[in-house]
Amino acid sequence: FHKPANVSELVAALDELTHQQQPVPYRILVVDDEPGLASYHSIILQEAGMATYQVTDPSSVLQVLQEFLPDMVLMDMYMPECNGLDLARLIRQVPEHVGLPIIYLSSEPDRKKQFGAMRVGAEGFMTKPVVPCELVATVTILAERMRILRSLMARDSLTGLLNHTTTTHLLQNALATAERAGGSLCLAMMDLDRFKLVNDTHGHLVGDQVLLALSRVLRQRLRSSDIIGRYGGEEFAAILQDITLDRATHLIDELRKDFARVVFHSASGEFSCTFSAGVAGYPAYTSGELLREAADRALYEAKRNGRNCVVP
Ligand code: GH3
Ligand code: MG
Ligand code: MG
Ligand code: MG
């Protein structure tokens, strides 16, 4: 069972598709009440280079989905405690899993029953005993598509940075890691100064170029283990790991100076743009919500102090 142990691993999984780094094996959840069959199907997939996790107790599936984050599910259709159809229905009720591919495995020969099972929300049906190469092909195609969807869903389409949902999720993970390791982390919230004026003066397309430029500065300057998200329209978040509040504030201030030096060109002339930022740290603040509130308060103060500055 290879659970993403830390945030950088999760980010690597998300990044795999966009940056084509070393491939992360597809993660397949195998649900079957018969341990022998679960193992047999797992071994076929493992030999094809995939990572699998076997579940023989259907009641643990929702929990395992959260932790194992599979790219697809192989689901036995008939299990004594709970049949695969009910389980698929349950999985589909969780918004995060609406797109998760499910393939039923069963010896059910009745086409009508097979079809009925798929209507509950599965992508396909394979009869036992499976033909190994068919199993591998089907699973690969579906897992690949899930990876693409997940990667698109995790990111903001303009800047390619992590979106609000992903950033919030990774903040929770980063906090859990810091807690376990007795480490520290900082959350910085950055907001462009008088950005409405930029749009009004130079137009939205130029405004979008400013957003892109800031995302580039953030990506260039921060470490690969840092998490950078577009939190809202013109608001960005950075989660910096293993760093003190002092050092994080200094680092964000360097970014502020870098960005202020970028010159933009538009039909209405040359201009530059600045951002203000608020920084808050764990363990001073112990939850995602508290960190967010504290960083927001600091950001508000930065705006009140005249903007183009960083407040811890
Ligand atoms: P402040 O310094 O107080 O933050 O002032 P502001 O003008 O930056 O703040 P305000 O919240 O009044 O305006 C934010 C603007 O950001 C308004 C909105 O049109 C713009 N904005 C949000 N998302 C986008 C986007 O995706 N593209 C562009 N071009 N503009 C955006
Ligand atoms: Mg069974
Ligand atoms: Mg704003
Ligand atoms: Mg603003």
TrEMBL record:
The question of whether Membrane is a record keyword is answered with no
Which parts of the sequence carry 4-aspartylphosphate?
A: 76
Is tRNA-binding tagged as a keyword? no
Span of the signal peptide: none
A single Gene Ontology molecular function, please?
A: diguanylate cyclase activity
EC number(s) given by UniProt: 2.7.7.65
Segments forming domain Response regulatory: 27-143
What's in the GO CC field?
A: plasma membrane
Q: What is the designated name of this protein? A: diguanylate cyclase
Q: What is the lineage of its organism?
A: Bacteria, Pseudomonadati, Thermodesulfobacteriota, Desulfovibrionia, Desulfovibrionales
